[in-house]
Amino acid sequence: xxxxxxxxxxGIGPEIMDAVLEIFNSAxxxxxxxxxxxxxxxxxxxxxxxxxxxxxxxxxxxKIFLKAPxxxxxxxxxxxLNVTTRKALGLFANxxxxxxxxxxxxxxxPNMNVVIVRENEEDLYAGIEHQQTDExxxxxxxISRPGCEKIVRYAFEYAKNYGRKKVTCFSKDNIMKQTDGxxxxxxxxxxxxxxxIESNHMIIDIxxxxxxxxxxxxxxxxxxxxYGDIISDVAAQIAxxxxxxxxxNIGLECSMFEAIHGSAPDIAGQNKANPSGLLQAAVSMLxxxxxxxxxxxxxxxxxxxxxxxxxxxxxxxxxxSKELLGTKxxxxxIIENLGQLPGxxxxxxxxxxxxxxxxxYNRKPRKEKxxxxxxxxxxxxxxxxxxxxxxxxxxxxxxxxxxxxxxxGIKVWPNGFDETFCTDHWRCRFTNKQNISIxxxxxxxxxNNAILNEVEVIKTENLYEFEGVKAxxxxxxx
Length: 478
Ligand code: NAD
Description:
By secondary structure, this protein is of the alpha/beta class. It has helices at about 15-25, 40-45, 55-60, 80-90, 145-160, 180-190, 205-215, 225-240, 275-290, 290-305, 325-335, 385-395, 440-450, and strands at about 1-5, 30-35, 65, 95-100, 115-120, 130, 135-140, 165-170, 200-205, 220-225, 245-250, 255-260, 310, 325, 370-380, 400-405, 410-415, 425-430, 455-465, 470. The strands form 4 sheets. It has a 10-stranded mixed sheet, sandwiched between helices. Strands 17-16-18-15-19-20 form a 6-stranded antiparallel sheet. The N and C termini lie far apart (about 65 Å). The protein binds nicotinamide-adenine-dinucleotide (NAD).
């Protein structure tokens, strides 16, 4: 029998986990459980990560982790266990099905059934941040080809296996042509391999507006980390089911399954919590493990319980509920309904093949790459772009000449506008007039000149061309 790792967490965690395990046992789900301690007690014992080394061992051995919510103590430098787990275990995909259960759960969109596939490891969440001048801080947005390929392929494989018809990509590549541009480019490449699945792209802002206004036009949405974080909450909220939704974090080796909600300390220990979010995550876990018959049976019993009007307090309404139940009694009702199908809500069918395997990433041969120049970032307290322009011209070398200065991306030299507001953070671009490739030692020479002329360099970025294509952004207004 397959063993998985479970953690009962904090607050309502133990009550909702017990309810899920009770349902699993009654349905004869063929699993064994290895229980670990995570969360508040571990944090307060002085472990700032909230998880012991032996618990990592259990998760890495069993590869499947069903996690109840935890309480992160305020202050004290405690690290988010969720972020640590996602990154340490390489959980690259966050899958959030957002489904309406109208009329039993209030929603403006009774037919909504959208799956958000969010990239989970990259983007601004790499957490690489620096203060560079008195006035300017930066956060690096890192997007990689393997990262894009994994998540986009996962979205198409998910659509194929779960009988979904369309995958929509959300990005902001009209502005971020390199980073979001790569994501969109990979999406177009991989979409061609799945001609049976419709594909389209939307700019994230108008896409989110359409999602909030008419979610029925979407099926599967794949997007980058930050956008996915935001739209998955928007989508869950408009489905009316934030408290009912599960979240799935998939890696090539390990995977973690949890409810979206937190540990709800206000109702902990009162037998009031709704176990549905964790149950939805647990059902997705069974599909992921290929235990499809049990997953389908439990999901249909849950749908029947919801439509029969047996509700916990968070979704109870005089109009649509028949009886208010506690956590335990709600789980017992689901157990009674095992083997039955819902009559009103659509019954679920097992997916064609829920086990998604991705090809191993093969690094391609290096492309021909030319160094064309360098962006030198300078901390300077003045406001007059012509003054810094003259100062920076004095550090030019034989091979590298000042071609442009921008401030927060807007060109201010040569021929900037007086109206443009300038901070103390200046990007000074040095390139070769003949547009030929330069040696890295030229950049060292330039930086030496900067030191001699008391120019305060805070960082540099090399300007490259890959196979004849310039691989850096132009200045706005250039
Ligand atoms: P929360 O989701 O715990 O609670 C928000 C509100 O929703 C509360 O009124 C609560 O009673 C209610 N609620 C939540 N889940 C419910 C359920 N299953 N049934 C019925 N009602 C439910 O969010 P919060 O209050 O902001 O956070 C409480 C703690 O949870 C914090 O320590 C936070 O750090 C933690 N948290 C953990 C996770 C996680 O482990 N994945 C996620 C979010 C928050």
